[in-house]
Specification:
- With 744 residues, the chain is mostly beta strands.
- A hairpin with a 3-residue loop joins strand 52 and strand 53.
- Helix 3 packs parallel to helix 5.
- The chain is elongated and about 110 Å long.
């Protein structure tokens, strides 16, 4: 009897537990048309092959007032009459659920919610990259009573609503809502809720109003409008009022609408917050009936604490007005100010003017620097065992053997061939051989005559473009450099990033009475990126310099450099949706005078040189017009004058041995920028009114540090140097230079 009772109890226990195990998890793998319930503690899955299509009630709900597991939707869930996922605790005791993950489509065509949480507390809610969650005509995510999302909300797909609110997540949400996909609130707010500790991060597309209890961070596209859409967020929709109770930061794009100027949030988009920090892009969609006039102020951010502005680019669709942005006088609000639509309000237009000005000024500086480097090289190479004064790395070889013989051969090497009697008797049998031989003889005679004529002109046996090679008494040399630099954003101009590549060819000669006389030709390619929208200035220039290093008393010398340059500029400016192009030419003259103490001996094996120098440049930029759109500008003739006073010192150290010599050198220079301001006049091509922009010098003081090394061996000379130019409170440039000399 005891055994029978035991077997009966065991059978009942096994049956009950086995039945529970079978019902613990539920998986939908086919099409279902009735409400699906979730049992206590169980997980619920709709596979990619499964679907739930409810036409009479809720699609998915909890089966009772108990805790449940995870919900995973890979397939499709739809409802025409009720909620899609409804978790309702009738005991108001705050039952829990696991993670809710949607990688498929959960969509309602009625007033039913997408996810409805009444006193339920799920963990994380995640919408995958292919997931879609839509609540139809009302809320998509709705948390009520003591319901709470205990974890984080992550949207990598799309969350939207038909005509109503999108996500009302409750005032007790204290974690992070990350929108990396599309979050769309068409007629009401896209998101509402959160405690002061909650964080909203938008790196995707956010469209609609937000009412957020914590901090709001935007690095993507944020559209503060009603009735907009994801495809045209910057040009569709009406103004909306938003709120971030614990700070607002945006470094991405903000799209706002303006239909009037009276009420924030109604006539124009606005954001209420505590602290704020805005940089990036602001697109303003202005209604033609907005009634804006110059001087109107729109409070974009209504703050209660510190407001900060970074580099902001404002674009708009208005043909009548433009906007400037500023921090209000109270230091807490950020305002858009309506101003005349003039070229002066466009940071990239001012950036172009600054780029042209910088290019002409820097080109003369680089041309002068090349000559200075040449004279310094000649000074450093004195007393080196090799007396060679040519300094370049150009080996002229020609693929045509005849031309190569003329340029690099000597007359002694080119002897005419003779035909012997034995060869002649053999040639009678084959006249084609005779023809070929006679042709070679004739060619060699002509080539030899060319070589002899060349030697009479050059005075040497070959144009060896190195070492002792000279054209008469003149020495050839080459040099080149790459310059990389940037100039920071100002209150009116966009940030500039610059790269310059230049190549210099020179010829000079030492005279006993007047010192070194020479000239140099520099070819330069300059490229400057203006701002971050694609505006650009590129140029090709040619500079010709004449120079003299005149010896004064003892080791004192006077260096004089005078020259001129021509420029051809190509410009591109992005203004809203328009790309505007143009070409501009310019010319300049420059002068540099330097007094140098050539050798100041120290009690250590280092030579010290001191100098004071002044340089002056006068540039003329010709007028030109942009083309490509209605916002094209005409820039009038512009004169740019610059001058600098420089004080510096150079030191060098020589290391010599039997087969090679090394010279290391360094320099330090202070420059006072004495340049006056320059004025640029411009107007719209379609208008007659000119506007004047005054550019003050980008910097007042500059420090230059130079490091370099010369290497000399029997047949090789190598030079490498680096200069760093630091402009106080403006920007910096790095100049990389290299030279190679070898006997060929």
């Amino acid at each position: 009897m005891v055994l029978i009772k035991f077997l009966i109890k065991f059978t009942l226990f096994f049956f009950l537990n086995f039945s529970f195990a079978l019902s613990a998890n539920k998986t939908i793998i086919t099409a279902e048309t009735i409400t699906q319930t979730i049992d206590t503690g169980s997980n619920f899955t709709v596979t990619s092959a499964g679907s739930i299509s409810s036409t009479t009630s809720v699609a998915i709900r909890n089966g009772g007032d108990f805790n449940i597991g995870d919900i995973l939707i890979e397939g499709t869930v739809t409802s025409t009459t009720g909620h899609l996922i409804s978790l309702n605790d009738t005991t108001n005791s705050g039952k829990t659920a696991g993670d809710i993950t949607i990688n498929g489509t959960v969509q309602s065509s009625s007033s039913g919610r997408g996810i409805y949480l009444n006193d339920y507390k799920p963990n994380n809610i995640t919408i995958g990259t292919s997931g879609v969650l839509s609540g139809g005509t009302t809320l998509t995510i709705h948390v009520v009573d003591s319901g709470q999302i205990r974890g984080n909300i992550t949207n990598n797909g799309t969350i939207t609503s038909g005509t109503g609110y999108t996500a009302s997540i409750g005032s007790n949400f204290a974690n992070t809502f990350s929108n990396n996909g599309n979050l769309l609130g068409k007629t009401e707010y896209a998101v509402n809720g959160g405690t002061a500790a909650s964080i909203f991060n938008n790196s995707g597309n956010f469209v609609g109003r937000f009412v957020w209890g914590g901090s709001f961070n935007n690095t993507g596209s944020l559209t503060v409008k009603h009735s907009s859409n994801l495809s045209t967020p910057s040009t569709s929709g009406t103004p909306a009022a938003s709120n971030a109770n614990n700070g607002f930061v945006s470094s991405g794009t903000i799209n706002i609408a303006v239909t009037g100027k009276t009420t924030a949030g109604t006539d124009y988009s606005s954001i209420t917050t505590t602290t704020s920090n805005i940089s990036g892009i602001i697109n303003v969609d202005v209604s033609s009936s907005s009634g804006l006039t110059v001087g109107d102020v729109l409070k974009l951010v209504d703050g209660t604490s510190t407001a900060t502005l970074g580099n902001v680019t404002i674009t708009d669709n208005s043909s009548d007005v433009d906007f400037a942005i500023r921090v209000a006088s109270n230091g807490q609000d950020i305002e858009l100010v309506v101003i005349n639509q003039t070229s002066l309000t466009k940071p990239d237009a001012i950036g172009l003017i600054q780029a042209w000005t910088n290019t002409v000024n820097k080109t003369s500086e680089y041309a002068i620097d090349h000559v200075e480097d040449r004279l310094n090289w000649l000074k450093r190479s004195q007393n080196i065992k090799s007396k060679k004064t040519s300094n370049q790395g150009i080996d002229l070889k020609f693929s045509n053997k005849k031309i190569d013989k003329i340029v690099n051969g000597t007359s002694k090497e080119e002897k005419t061939d003779k035909i012997t009697f034995t060869e002649a008797t053999g040639y009678i049998k084959d006249h084609t051989v005779v023809d070929f031989k006679l042709k070679n003889v004739a060619e060699n005679i002509v080539i030899n005559e060319f070589i002899q004529a060349k030697e009479k002109v050059t005075g040497n046996k070959g144009l060896e473009f190195d070492s002792d090679s000279k054209l008469g008494e003149w020495s050839w040399y080459t040099s080149g450099s790459v310059v990389i630099g940037q100039q920071e954003t100002t209150s009116t101009s966009s940030k500039l990033k610059n790269e310059n590549k230049n190549l210099n060819f020179g010829l000079d000669r030492q005279f006993n009475s007047i010192g070194i006389i020479g000239f140099a030709l520099m070819f330069a390619d300059d490229n400057t990126d203006v701002g971050g929208l694609g505006s650009n200035v590129s140029s090709n220039s040619y500079s010709l310099s004449f120079y003299n290093s005149y010896p004064l008393e003892n080791t004192l010398s006077l260096r004089t450099i005078i020259g001129g340059s021509t420029f051809a500029f190509d410009t591109k400016r992005i203004d809203g949706s328009q790309t505007l192009n143009g070409q501009r030419s310019a010319k300049q003259a420059y002068l540099s005078m330097e007094l140098r103490e050539d050798s100041y001996k120290l009690n250590i094996p280092i030579d010290l040189e001191l100098y004071i120098k002044g340089d002056f440049t006068n540039s003329e930029l010709n007028a030109f017009s942009e083309s490509g759109g209605t916002r094209a500008l005409f820039f009038d003739n512009q004169r740019v004058k610059s001058s600098h006073l420089r004080l510096g010192t150079d030191i060098k150290n020589k290391i010599e041995n039997k087969n090679e010599n090394i010279i290391t050198y360094a320099g330090l220079e202070y420059s006072a920028n004495l340049t006056s301001s320059t004025k640029a006049n411009m107007k719209y091509v379609s208008e007659d009114t000119f506007y004047t922009q005054t550019l003050v010098p980008a910097y007042d003081h500059e420090m230059t540090v130079k490091l370099g090394v010369d290497f000399y061996s029997n047949n090789l000379k190598f030079n490498l140097s680096l200069k760093h130019k630091e402009q106080f409170n403006s920007g910096s440039h790095q100049i990389f230079s290299a030279g190679l000399e070898s006997k060929f």
